[in-house]
Amino acid sequence: MVFEGLSGKLQETIKRLRGAGRVSEKDVKEIMREIKLALLEADVNFKVVKDFISKVSERAVGQEVLESLTPGQQVIKIVHEELINLMGSETSKATFSPRPPTVYMMVGLQGSGKTTTSGKLANLLRKQGKNPLLVACDVYRPAAIKQLQVVGGQLNVPVFTIGDKISPVDIAKAAVEHARLKQHDLVIIDTAGRLHIDEELMEELINIKTAVKPHEILLVVDSMTGQDAVNVSESFNSKLGIDGVILTKLDGDTRGGAALSVRAVTGKPIKFAGMGEKLSDLEPFHADRMASRILGMGDVLSLIEKAQEAFDEKKALEMEKKMRTQQFTLDDFLDQMQQLKKMGPLNQVLGMLPGVNAKALQNVQVDEKKMSHIEAIIKSMTKQERLDPHIINGSRRKRIAAGSGTTIQEVNKLLKDFEEMKKMMKAMTDMSKHGKKGMGKFKLPF
Fold first, then answer.
1. Do both 70 and 113 map to the same domain?
2. Is residue 356 one of the residues assigned to a domain?
3. Are 214 and 141 contained in the same domain?
4. What is the Cα–Cα distance from 316 to 128, expressed in whole angstroms?
5. Is pLDDT above 50 for 300?
6. CA 208 to CA 214: how far, in whole Å?
7. CA-based angle 443:444:446, to the nearest 5?
């Protein structure tokens, strides 16, 4: 989960403040000490931590807070606002050149995820109506060109390459010309990285920049590298001049220090965040939403956006009607499960709900294998069996188990869970009619 360690510690610390009727200057100092330790443990840059604590403390010990009716809530509000300022109070969107093609130059160290991120960015911006061209300019790393071609093939995005015997500067120039001829309005150049920053790498990047005059230079940073990420960002920015940052691997068990430090150190906006391994797992970076997630306030806007992308509105209305009229079938259940999977890992989705503690999510293990077993079981049923599971007798259960590569016990469990789910839906419908709330002890079958 995003910022797992930091999020857990900060939530524990500010939980004590929530209902506090009175907060003294001593209380604020104690809380600030704990927040400072949590940030340093998360690998946030020391200078960034010092400035952050200073700003929060200054605001938190003011008369307005200490004499307010809800001082605890006021301090939490200040921490939230300063976290947003730290990561960038304005959401920085992708910008495009008024004269196409728009050229994006992707830079960063080897292993930061540049090649995959280039593909993810092409995929994301294509949804905004762009016609991208990926350019293979990494002629040094073995199989780098092939990797970009594989990524491009999976996304059905063309990849420009003229082999590894030509200089990256000439490849970049030829690619932009090719894009003009073929009507590509977006060019994403995947440049070479090194295991460390050296003069040779910088010289080459400066030459590509001079040759193609990119609209934006985007630095790809592995957020799991902690303090190194900050040093890398500083070096690239001072020598090359970057326009924005893309943080990768934010879904890992990361301490999160990079995300909280990079913007403060470089002054450049974090534009996108890689939230998973799939080629669709790249999101625009919203500092306010990320700050809310860190403090356990949820991220309802991102959750709604994910749901809108994954769920068909017409289907959702039909489904709601079926639930109300008790016509929900195993076909519908399969359809819902497949749409839910499109939203990403369930513990990530749950992490966007307000009040869900980061620590509690450590124990949420959604068994992907179990979900695929359920799919296989339902797909092994006849149309009639899916519509009316009551006709599934012993011999049919045996056949379904054999057809899905599962056991009769697993088939029995799914049918039992499905019936429980239908009962729960009926109960919820009845409750909404009578204005009651509650879900009882309902548990998902996966």
1. no
2. no
3. yes
4. 24
5. no
6. 9
7. 130
